[in-house]
Design a protein that fits this description.
209 residues, alpha/beta, six-stranded mixed beta sheet, 14 strands, globular
């Protein structure tokens, strides 16, 4: 699966474009300032059909509505974080951002366990609360889009509203239990690999034999 990375918005959150067919793609998280993303779609003559959100914090959804309205893509988010798409306060926008808040007009909610199919590619929804109640990872082929659940040798914060250190621990255990190795594409910073994180991430130490 061919994947292109953009760093968008005030906090430079990773936005991923994943090719699902020769002229078709999905996006994972769009944190803001999406002009570069829209220009890339136009230049490559790509049809963006779906936007998959790993959670609802503003730095991952700030540019969603502009893109959704421009290309008529379907937006997906876990039901526990759906309120963030309509609320500057719940999304943490009002306490951190200086940019205008643009609520998302249309979206589809998830509960975890769904398979989202697009083109020739499937994305499995894994509910991984901890950073927020509705945080999810999307697993496709050999890749995990981990959002702010798992980073290279670190994890997402759990001290925000709706965060939970115990839920994060449980979610990390769920990721640790996955068999085989995966590329891990996080919401911030550099990519990593699941096997490397199992062996080196200090937050996964409790699960090692």
């Amino acid at each position: 699966m061919n994947i292109k990375t953009f760093q968008l918005g005030e906090l430079n959150a990773n936005c991923y474009l994943a090719m699902t067919a020769p002229d078709q793609c999905i996006a994972v998280d769009i944190g803001g300032s999406p002009r570069m993303l829209l220009e890339f779609l136009k230049m490559k003559n790509l049809r963006l059909t779906k936007i998959l959100l790993t959670h609802g914090h503003f730095d991952h959804m700030g540019g969603v509505e502009e893109v959704r309205a421009a290309v008529n893509a379907e937006v997906f988010i876990h039901e526990e974080d759906a309120k963030m798409l309509q609320s500057s306060t719940a999304s943490l926008h009002s306490s951190i951002s200086i940019m205008p808040f643009i609520p998302v007009a249309k979206y589809t909610t998830l509960r975890g366990g769904e398979i989202i199919s697009d083109g020739e590619v499937d994305f499995r929804v894994l509910h991984t609360p901890g950073h927020s109640k509705g945080s999810v990872c999307y697993i496709s082929e050999d890749t995990i889009f981990s959002g702010d659940t798992l980073f290279c040798c670190s994890i997402g914060r759990t001290d925000f509203p709706d965060g939970s250190s115990q839920q994060m621990r449980d979610s990390l255990g769920l990721l640790y239990s996955l068999e085989g190795d995966f590329k891990v594409l996080p919401g911030h910073n550099e990519p990593t690999e699941l096997l490397y994180e199992k062996q080196n991430n200090p937050y996964m130490k409790p699960f090692r034999n």
